[in-house]
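Memo to structure team: turn this sequence into structure tokens by end of day. - J.P.
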Amino acid sequence: MRNYSKLIGALAAVSALAAGNASAIDLSYNLHAGYTNQYIFRGIDLGNDLVEAGFDVSADVTESTNISAGVWYANFDTAPNIPELEANTNEIDFYAKVAQDLGFATASVGYIYYYNDNSNDLRDFIGGHLGDAQEISFGLSREFYGVNVSLTYYWDIVSDNDGYTELAVGKSWELNSCLTLNVGSALGYAQEEGHLSHWTTKVSLDYEFVENAKFSPFVAGTLDLSSGHFDDAITTSTAPHTKNEFVGGAMISVGF
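Reply from structure team:
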């Protein structure tokens, strides 16, 4: 109950701040929802039948500074990987980020709060990978010849995720006025353990069926690069870990 109160209080504060500055700052909003047959998080298979929805808001407060925030809800089935639980899991993430254009690159600092309704039980099986957590991220990004490149470090400030760094590249091609092809790839590195964790590539097709609204089917593949290096807290053969996976799904989003 205490966690819910904190989350509701934080959301109310953000909403009040946005409302108070709406007249001074041009805000952009995005609503999105989707389904994926498996929930893959940083190369780790967390469960099946991921149903998600989210809301994001962003604003350029100066010509070189952007702030953004959002909330993401997910429901997924943990039973295939953790049969001891035999239950679906609800996850709510709150996040915010400040990005500054430095000329040679864009630097960002972000914050993520992960809330999970089965966090206590899940910690017993998978060492906190699905438990409540808070992260601070530090990133640099830049566009090279039409390719977006970013490097981001995630630091868990509540427990210990051993440090996670991700190098990501992405490019989009406008096929016509309604269709855009997107290809993105990410390489994960477990900082303190000193090994690569996964390589994930995603291909999506955005179909803008009406102005500012699009439907995006996608496929993604994850290659396990951990070479058997898993967290010592993961003790069961059914516990989620990095492994080779191929998933598919679709998203629908509306911007205004």
